[in-house]
Design a protein that fits this description.
The protein contains 5 helices and 24 strands. The chain has about 425 residues and is α+β, with helices and mostly antiparallel strands. The strands form 5 sheets. A 6-stranded antiparallel beta barrel has the order 4-13-17-15-14-18. It has a 4-stranded antiparallel sheet with strand order 5-12-10-7, with no helix packed on it. Helix 1 packs antiparallel against helix 2 and helix 2 packs antiparallel against helix 3.
Length: about 425
């Protein structure tokens, strides 16, 4: 919605003799006219992340309290997961066995070692898919599942090569020495991958803050998708799983509470830099540029002074609350008389145009005649005369005049609809 604000002083020169004059005149003067775009907005934090459990187990330690400030890398919680610890021990044993295999002995059960590796790898990928299924956003979920599929495909290719070497040894097609060496290398690589996955899962049981911020127990309404398979298994960026809390009962996870992959433990919100995201209508968006100053008013604190600056404008549109096309405009708060909370509703006013020291008249003085902007001017005989004008910056109550009027001329500023050509003016 296009609105405006202005600062203008007009000198009233005359009025009718009635107590409530129907026609009022004033002299054209110079002033400042501002064209302002208003748009609904909400307060944003610099960042937020929900930290979740990477595995099934219990919450062993919760090292921070709600509202506490934490630093990047600080340990905030510890999960006790016997299953994850057991898988790491199994992966370590398989890695040790793979390194010892092929040491010159032809009695090694090559197929058995490979089969065990494949089974443990399949368990790891199944667990990763189960964790990805907890992501509610379809796009983020598909991205995570695609990463798992790619990793599983690469493992499968290595496994097929290994099984081919095993069969070659059994059939006597390949040189035993070369096959044993290649086989050992392939199996060690696969065992190392399985060990790394299991170790990353155990390491993730000690949950640390990815960046500094303020602690809030439980999960946020939305979270980022994991960027890799390791992130998925470690629970980084996974969305909160439903807690199923009863009415009147806190849904937060307490020490000793059971957890599963994706259970939200706490959320860290970085409020070191607050901003605003506004939805500007498509009819106004071309007037908005980066660096443009803006004033904002919070619904929760009417009259509070907030100043902001446009930092970026989205290229792709979004449907606004009225179903019309709008574009998101991002702003950073430069000054606030109060400290807003992320998510608070606000109204921003973007000063998109400004004319300083220009001729200007009240918007009520301008009317349309034959499709052209027109005003009533008091001529030398003191009578009303139509004058075509050209306007510039359009404020809410005042318009800039670029052609058609001179400073000091007298015009009708109230009751223009009651004046006809040649009427005497006060």
């Amino acid at each position: 919605m296009l609105l405006s604000a202005t600062a203008l002083v007009l000198t009233l020169t005359a009025a009718s003799c009635d107590d409530a004059p129907e026609v009022t005149v004033a002299q054209v003067s110079r002033g400042t006219v501002s064209e302002v775009v208003e748009a609904p907005a909400s307060v944003t934090a610099r960042g937020a992340v929900s930290l979740t459990s990477p595995a099934k187990g219990t919450l062993a330690q919760l090292l921070v309290a709600p509202g506490a400030t934490v630093a990047a890398g600080q340990t905030v919680a510890v999960i006790d997961s016997p299953e994850a610890t057991a898988r790491l021990a199994q992966a370590q044993a398989a890695l040790d066995a793979a390194k010892k295999a092929g040491g010159g002995s032809t009695k090694v059960n090559l197929g058995g070692v490979q089969k065990a590796l494949d089974e443990r790898a399949a368990e790891a990928f199944t667990e990763a898919r189960s964790a990805a299924a907890l992501i509610t956003d379809p796009t983020l979920r598909d991205k995570a599942l695609a990463g798992i599929t790619t990793a599983e495909r690469r493992y499968g290719e290595a496994s097929q090569t290994t099984w081919g070497l095993i069969k070659g040894v059994e059939k006597g097609i390949s040189s035993l020495g070369q096959a044993m060496k290649a086989l050992t290398q392939a199996q060690v690589m696969q065992a190392q991958q399985a060990f790394d996955l299991a170790k990353s899962n155990v390491d993730a049981l000690t949950i640390t803050a990815p960046f500094g911020g303020t602690v809030q127990l439980g999960g946020a309404s939305a979270a980022a998708a994991p960027s890799s398979l390791t992130d998925l298994l470690s629970g980084a960026g996974m969305p909160a799983a439903p807690t199923g809390a009863l009415p009147g009962v806190s849904g937060n996870i307490n020490i000793g509470s059971p957890v599963t992959p994706g259970t939200a433990i706490l959320t860290i919100v970085d409020t070191s830099e607050l901003g605003l995201v506004a939805e500007v209508d498509e009819t106004d968006i071309l007037l908005v540029k980066p660096g443009l100053p803006a004033d904002a008013e919070l619904d929760a604190a009417p009259g509070a002074e907030l100043r902001a600056e446009v930092t970026a404008i989205d290229l792709l549109p979004t449907a606004n609350s009225r179903g019309a096309v709008a574009y998101k405009v991002h702003l950073v708060l430069k000054h606030t008389s109060v400290t807003p909370r992320p998510g608070m509703s606000a109204l921003i006013r973007l000063k998109v145009k400004e004319a300083v020291g220009k001729l200007c008249v009240p918007a009520a003085a301008v009317f349309s005649a034959d499709g052209l902007d027109t005003v009533w001017v008091k001529n030398r005989d003191g009578k009303a005369e139509k004058r075509r004008i050209t306007t510039g910056v359009a404020g809410r109550d005042v318009l800039e005049i670029t052609e058609g009027l001179r400073e000091g001329e007298t015009i009708v500023v109230k009751g223009a609809d009651k004046v006809t050509e040649g009427d005497p003016l006060p």
